[in-house]
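Checklist before submission:
- one chain only
- standard amino acids only
- sequence pasted in full

Submission:
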Amino acid sequence: PQRARQAKRCHAPVHHQGVAPRKVTMRILCVPLSSGVEWHVYLPFECKPVRQQQKLDALRTYILQHPEGWKKRLELAQLLYAIGHWEDAAVAYRQVVQKQPRCGAAWLGLGELCHLLARTTEAMAAYERVLSCIRQEAMQHHVRGLIAVCEQRAEEAVQAFERAATCEPQNAAHWHALGSVHLHTAAPDAAL
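Returned file contents:
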């Protein structure tokens, strides 16, 4: 009962439903790919580095005091992801899923990170785990689209993201993912 409530609270994909901060700066992050090419990713960062550091310190202190917990560790993983500390975020996400294997938000974050870091096999495995954790039809379609993107099956990804957007038209994440696939398949008109 309590465990089911904890798992249920964790199912919401935090990254896709968050509200954008008011003051944002764009930074370029260079991601080295296995092919030797560097991929330049533009990331928005909140313009509050002092507050972010205070939050990181507070979360790390709390986790040291409560090593069995997973909620603050998930929060830490999400913050590390947001500020571009991807390797540390991946470690934190893995720790969350060890403690709370049905936490869809942690599996989703880990999948997104692995995809960004060109760890396709690990990303797909994480996305498969997300599917077993969520019940929302729109999110299931979205995650199937993410898996199709990892497998470079653009047409299948487009269909999955379209289904997700049809089920949940107010969720910008579905539309963004759909547009992104269209842009990467040289179909900029469809992206609009």
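Reviewer check: The first helix runs from residue 2 to 9.
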